[in-house]
Amino acid sequence: MKLVPSKWQANILRAPTAAYVIGIALIALSATVIYISNDHLLLAQESSTLEVNVSGRQRMLSQKIALSAEIVRNGNAAIADAKYQRELLSNCANLMEWAHQALLSRDKDALMATEAVGVTCNEVAEVDLGLPMGKMSADLSASFFAGQPYLNSTLSMYLALTRLAASGDASPSDYKQLQVLAQGDLVNLLNNLTYAFQVEGERSIA
């Protein structure tokens, strides 16, 4: 005589299988959530690193400009070298402005593009990104627009003086003001910006 399990016995027999399937599904769901979370964390870290690198390079470019401007001002370099230094000033000014726009936009592609140029300033054309300003905390926004003087206006003045030096039209007072900014207000404001991006990055991955 063949024994046929009752309905409740059949349910009991199926229960482990159902529990196993549910368990596997929960593990898969957890793994997916962890993957998405880690992916988001990696993207946030990558963007933060880009912003810190590009803002830190701005300080280096400001000092490179100051050095080239001093060579041009002294006028004791060979004609070929003086021409090279003026071209370098123009290119470095373009790169600084491009990087500043990329930092304001917080656009990853723009930041990667400007970072790839390095600090050589070789043949950097003027770039009009036309990008909207990115989302910022109040502290990060203040690093660009708050204080007296504030970074945006100080950098604009510095780039204008740099382009005057590149064109050969800078006066002795223009050169003096450029050096004062490079050794004082501008470098301090750029230091503050780099620190602000570091803090912003830490908050985004906390």
Can you walk through the features of this model?
The chain has 206 residues and is an all-alpha fold. Helices cover 79% and strands 0% of the residues. The protein contains seven helices and no strands. It has helices spanning 7-74, 79-105, 108-116, 138-145, 151-167, 172-183, 185-205.
For the termini, the CA-CA separation is 67 Å
Gyration radius (Cα, Å) is 28 Å
Number of strands: 0
Helix content: over 70%
Report mean pLDDT, rounded to a whole number.
80
Helices and strands, in order, run as HHHHHHH
What about the largest sheet?
none
Number of helices: 7
Overall, the morphology is elongated
Percent of sequence in beta strands: under 5%
Low-confidence stretches: 28-42
SS content category: mainly alpha
Which helices and strands, and how do they pair?
Elements: H1 7-74, H2 79-105, H3 108-116, H4 138-145, H5 151-167, H6 172-183, H7 185-205
Helix pairs in contact: 1-2, 1-3, 1-6, 1-7, 2-3, 2-5, 4-7, 5-6, 5-7, 6-7
Defining traits:
206 residues, mainly alpha, 7 helices, 79% helix, elongated
